[in-house]
Amino acid sequence: MGGARSVEYEIEQAVGGANFQMTATTSSNMVNLSGLDKGKKYTYRIRSKNSMHHSDFSDAVQIDYILKPSAPMNLKEDEAQRVFSSNSLSTILKWTKSVDNGGDKDTTYSLYRIFFDRQNKGTRKGEMLLFKGLTMPEATVDNLVAGVEYTFEVQAENKFGASDRATSN
After folding, report:
1. How does pLDDT run across 55-113, given as a tens digit for each residue?
2. What top-level class would CATH report for the domain 73-167?
3. Contacts 24+ apart (CB under 8 A), 149-154
């Protein structure tokens, strides 16, 4: 940088494709940016400056501020929707959508059937993914055996990750 020592970095931010604006100046190689809104796209570029000159800006880096969603709640069977046939039972499971989608409007749900050890009640033995990519907070589960107790779990997912699971009662 022209013989003078670099002393500061200027950080510019653009939100959602808008023009860049100065957002921070620091002498450190790290900066804490606060006040970001979930679900927005942020673009940053940086340049160094000293008392004599400033550099060109770096290539821009885009960040999608998205977190994993919160867990769905209240997973339960809609008992009024049970359908019995001669060999099986179908039922509808419903749940409350995640309160916080993490900033991603494309949050989907996966539904699992949970298996337990018959000798050691309460010991989880495995699971089966029944549905993935559900967009509505309900699913019809078919081929159940009447009189058998089932446990189901539902999980919200977005492009950042998966929530904790809600378990049926």
Report:
1. 999 999 888 777 889 999 999 987 766 676 666 788 899 999 998 888 788 899 999 99
2. mainly beta
3. 150/113, 151/113, 151/114, 151/116, 152/75, 152/93, 152/111, 152/112, 152/113, 152/114, 153/75, 153/111, 153/112, 153/114, 153/127, 154/72, 154/75, 154/93, 154/95, 154/109, 154/110, 154/111, 154/112
Q: What is the pLDDT of residue 80?
A: 63
pLDDT at 1: 45
Q: Taking Cα atoms as reference points, which of 130, 139, 136, 135 lies closest to residue 92?
A: 139
The reply to whether 8-64 and 73-167 are identical in fold is yes
The continuous run of DSSP H or E covering 49 comes out as strand 41-49
All residues at 6 or more sequence positions from 80 whose CB lies less than 8 Å from its CB, including other chains: none
Is the domain 8-64 a CATH 1.10.390.10 member? no
Domains in the chain: boundaries: 8-64, 73-167
